[in-house]
């Protein structure tokens, strides 16, 4: 009985479903591959049949494939089949650049947008960004049953009896990977609706630890007119730390500026420039300015008892008694008369006589000249700019849809996240040089928020956005009836990455819409779009895929500056951030360059990559590297292949 009690499981229990499938349209159909019908579309109601390829005969368009599966043997044209992989099978991803926009400084970070299955993209990021991400924000499928997400290549229906456990299985895999990408002081924010809110919190308690819970934020986005009982227009955002006890290592200000502060301070500087050092005249001018402001202006919250100090600082009076009562009741002597000052009925605002005396000595407590009673406490206006962030905030959701429609010139995405809301939370939760990851990237709101934040405050944040190229159910049905299928240009061009995310972010940065019309002057930023491509390990070992692996090396060193796309001309190449030795016969000039940099104290690369199939050749190179580089050296392509073959725990 005791053993049974000790083994009881508490918490969230759910079925972990069969490994998910992902289609690889560009992967060649080869013996040993698992395949399915290319004509299968996400709205299909039947289970997805798969077969294992036994043989391939012929060439070109005449290739015939024989494959064996649970439904027996089939023989079809290779063009009718597409390779699929289960998520527990090793994959070898690369990145193919599809568009690069250099609209910022050379040393600015490149914001990266990746189109591909996010489970595999996260595995890839474990190669480049393990324990390196400051903030993860995701807006995953809410699992409302309205065909908002696809599991095993099929839309999950409202009537599916395993709807919730499929969603939890889907989320668990990705959240475990996300945890391994966060720094110790990293933070993850997950948006969610009513349907899965309670299950998600239990899942995150299990993955991140309930001791690392920070907040359950409520976003009130307006009333729902179709509510049957109580109108609840709220969404939620669960916020967890990777390690709550490590947050002190990073300056995270869970406070924000009150609206209108900058406007008031700017006016104060202008008034003081005109009237200083006449404090009375400046104060009168400032109070007159406040009276002219509209009654609903946010600056009115700062209008009470504003005045200037002799040094030009703009101050205001605040109550010296404890708000709500319960303050301290010690004796205070008037600095001029020496008589006791009556204690306010609510007690003093300062917690001790010593702190009160410091404020009196500093001239911050204002006393009546002809009485023993103090009237108020001086506060520089700048001290009033900070306010505690509340866990409930209001923002109409219609703003976001109108914004994306304005950017693209037409309505392409129904319910985007509000980039201004995301700017608020990214500003609060992450430093100005943060790496911000969103692996449910959707229309690109998170990347736009990061780009605009950098332009606003001069930050050097970098966004990494992962999205897929799935179609809406409506578009999938329409294209399927017209005879198109996944992989066709007509099909792929209507996917969210190509049709929404990429043109939206390109327009935000360049200021030019896809149709050539002008949206804005643009924003200084560097931006590159990639698509995940799946490689054959045999081609990788033969050094046939460097160009699509090059972005991974670059991404792993911060995605800044020049990328080494082809080191073959002289056999090696070196930037300020990383170096690649592609031909072992070119080792001598390669080592001379790195040792020269070390001797002259030039910028040494953060990582060194040596391409060789020989462990002896690799050792012969690394032993001659500058000492500080020997622990930052990687052997290609063994380290790359081994990473994807041995994924476990938070990696898998």
From TrEMBL:
Similarity section: Belongs to the N(4)/N(6)-methyltransferase family.
Keywords of this entry: Methyltransferase, S-adenosyl-L-methionine, Transferase
Keyword Transferase in annotation: yes
Protein name: DNA methylase N-4/N-6 domain-containing protein
Gene3D superfamilies: Vaccinia Virus protein VP39
Residue ranges of domain DNA methylase N-4/N-6 in the record: 133-455
UniProt-listed GO biological process terms: methylation
GO molecular function, one term: DNA binding
A Pfam family this chain is assigned to: N6_N4_Mtase
InterPro entries according to UniProt: DNA_methylase_N4/N6, DNA_methylase_N6_adenine_CS, N4/N6-MTase_EcoPI_Mod-like, SAM-dependent_MTases_sf
């Amino acid at each position: 009985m005791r053993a049974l009690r000790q083994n009881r499981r508490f918490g969230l229990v759910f079925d972990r479903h069969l490994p998910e499938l992902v289609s690889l349209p560009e992967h060649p159909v080869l013996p040993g591959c698992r395949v399915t019908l290319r004509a299968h579309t996400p709205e299909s109601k039947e289970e997805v049949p798969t077969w294992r390829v036994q043989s391939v005969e012929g060439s070109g368009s005449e290739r015939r494939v024989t494959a064996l599966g649970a439904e027996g043997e089939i023989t079809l044209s290779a063009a009718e089949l597409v390779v699929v992989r289960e998520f527990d099978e090793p994959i070898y991803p690369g990145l193919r650049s599809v568009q690069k926009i250099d609209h910022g400084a050379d040393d600015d970070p490149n914001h990266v947008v990746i189109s591909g299955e996010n489970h595999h993209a996260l595995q890839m990021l474990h190669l480049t960004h393990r324990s390196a991400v400051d903030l993860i924000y995701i807006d995953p499928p809410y699992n409302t049953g309205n065909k908002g997400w696809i599991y095993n290549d099929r839309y999950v229906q409202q009537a599916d009896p395993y709807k919730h456990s499929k969603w939890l299985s889907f989320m668990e895999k990705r959240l475990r990977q996300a945890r391994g990408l966060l720094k110790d002081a990293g933070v993850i924010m997950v948006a969610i609706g009513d349907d899965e809110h309670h299950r998600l919190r239990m899942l995150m308690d299990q993955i991140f630890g309930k001791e690392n819970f920070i907040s359950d934020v409520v976003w009130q986005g307006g009333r729902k007119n179709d509510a049957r009982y109580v109108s609840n227009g709220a969404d939620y955002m669960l916020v967890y730390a990777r390690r709550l006890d490590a947050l002190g290592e990073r300056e995270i200000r869970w406070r924000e500026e009150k609206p209108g502060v900058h406007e008031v301070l700017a006016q104060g500087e202008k008034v003081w420039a005109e009237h200083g050092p006449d404090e009375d005249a400046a104060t009168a001018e400032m109070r007159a300015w406040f009276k002219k402001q509209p009654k609903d202006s946010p600056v009115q919250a700062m209008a009470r008892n504003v005045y200037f100090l002799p040094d030009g600082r703009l101050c205001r009076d605040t109550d010296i008694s404890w708000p709500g009562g319960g303050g301290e009741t010690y004796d205070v002597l008037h600095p001029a008369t020496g008589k006791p000052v009556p204690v306010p009925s609510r007690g003093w605002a300062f917690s001790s006589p010593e702190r009160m005396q410091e404020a009196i000595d500093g001239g911050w407590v204002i006393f009546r000249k002809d009485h023993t009673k103090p009237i108020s406490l001086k506060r520089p206006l700048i001290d009033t700019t900070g306010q505690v962030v509340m866990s409930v905030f209001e923002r109409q959701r219609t703003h976001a849809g109108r914004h994306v429609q304005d950017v693209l010139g037409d309505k392409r995405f129904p319910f985007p996240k509000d980039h201004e809301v995301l700017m608020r939370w990214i500003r609060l939760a992450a430093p100005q040089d943060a790496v911000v990851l969103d692996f449910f990237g959707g229309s690109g709101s998170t990347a736009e928020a990061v780009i605009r934040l950098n332009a606003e405050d001069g930050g050097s944040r970098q966004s990494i956005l992962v999205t897929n190229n799935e179609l809406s159910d409506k578009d999938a049905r329409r294209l399927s009836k017209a005879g198109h299928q996944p992989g066709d240009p007509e099909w792929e061009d209507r996917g969210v990455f190509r049709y929404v995310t990429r043109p939206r972010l390109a327009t935000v940065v360049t200021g030019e819409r896809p149709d050539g019309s002008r949206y804005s002057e643009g924003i200084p930023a560097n931006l590159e779009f990639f698509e995940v491509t799946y490689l054959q390990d045999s081609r990788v070992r033969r050094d046939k895929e460097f160009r699509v692996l090059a972005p991974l090396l670059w991404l792993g060193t911060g995605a800044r500056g020049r990328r080494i796309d082809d080191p073959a001309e002289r056999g090696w190449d070196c930037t300020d951030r990383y170096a690649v030795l592609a031909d072992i016969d070119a080792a001598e000039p390669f080592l001379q360059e790195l040792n020269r940099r070390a001797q002259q104290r030039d910028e040494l690369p953060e990582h060194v990559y040596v391409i060789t199939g020989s462990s002896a050749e690799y050792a012969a190179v690394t032993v001659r590297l500058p000492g500080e580089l020997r622990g930052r050296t990687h052997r290609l392509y063994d380290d790359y292949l081994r990473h994807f073959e041995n994924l476990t725990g938070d990696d898998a």
